[in-house]
Specification:
Blueprint (H helix, E strand, L loop, with lengths): L4 E2 L8 E8 L2 E12 L2 E4 L11 E5 L12 E10 L4 E3 L2 E3 L3 E5 L28 E6 L13 E8 L1 H4 L13 E5 L16 E6 L2 E10 L10 E5 L9
Antiparallel strand pairs: 1-11, 2-3, 2-5, 3-4, 4-9, 5-6, 6-9, 7-8, 10-11, 10-13, 11-12, 12-15, 13-14, 14-15
Bound molecules: 4-(aminomethyl)benzoic acid (4AZ).
Length: 236
């Protein structure tokens, strides 16, 4: 996160760290968001390994140390959007579900540090203030060991597809958020898959997932997010 601040513990209790298991231990790869006790949303482009190599860590603040509030799960199943495609380096329908493997008959246990976010049924107006959170690269050029968050505004498709911005690279599975006046606030590498949440009636809804961008924190290049609500998807 560029232009972010360290979050207070339990402010974004749905944020997950998607980690890759290695011989030397597990390494943060992407963000994710808890939407049900056994289900985490992430970006499809984050799935670079089979389920057996992945681990989801909930309730984390500092990635560098073991924390008492953390809850760790293996991944039982991965469901990638059937229309996920990378075209000209742009990921389309960049969304996947991870089913957590229960431990002792249950997955996530709700605590002050671990909770689900709500799923939206509709869109919000442009200019709405929302949050992004993650452990990705900051303006120092390095990833953060502490969970950071920042406030960004939803930007209309029309503005974000203008030539000076993303020049018609966005389709209906994506939207932009940032601050065209304060360009330094953005998501970056390592934040991918993590949530863009907006508060409606006091509840946090996951409207977007960090997906892509043209570098980070650049003027006129706001971050691009996967649209989570099904408003643009065919019905069943
Ligand atoms: C990335 O490389 C990435 N500024 C994520 C988000 C953004 C840019 C790049 C948005 O994963």
């Amino acid at each position: 996160i560029y232009g972010g601040a360290k979050t207070t513990a339990g402010k974004h209790p749905w944020v997950a760290s998607l980690q890759i298991k290695t011989a030397k231990g597990s390494k943060h790869q992407c963000g994710g968001v808890l939407i049900e006790a056994c289900w985490v949303l992430t970006a499809a482009h984050c799935i670079t390994q089979p389920a057996g190599y992945l681990e989801v860590v909930l309730g984390k603040q500092n990635l560098e140390k073991r924390e008492n509030q953390e809850q760790i799960f293996d991944v039982e199943k991965i469901i990638v959007h059937n229309k996920y495609r990378e075209k000209n380096h742009v990921p389309h329908n960049d969304i996947a579900l991870l089913k957590l493997k229960p431990v002792g008959g249950h997955c996530a246990v709700e605590t002050k540090y671990v909770k689900t976010a709500c799923l939206p049924n509709s869109s919000l107006p442009d200019g709405t203030d929302c949050f992004i959170a993650g452990w990705g690269v900051t303006e120092t050029g390095e990833a953060s060991s502490q969970l950071l968050d920042a406030s960004v505004r939803l930007i209309s498709q029309r503005k974000c597809n203008e030539p000076r911005a993303h020049n018609h690279k966005l389709d209906e599975s994506m939207f932009c958020a940032g601050n065209l006046r304060r360009p330094g606030v953005d998501s970056c590498q390592g934040d991918s898959g993590g949530p863009l949440t907006c508060v409606v009636n006091g509840f946090y809804y996951v409207y977007g997932l960090v997906s892509w961008g043209d570098d980070c924190g650049l003027r006129n290049k706001p971050g691009v997010y996967t649209q989570v609500n099904g408003a643009n998807n065919p019905g069943t």
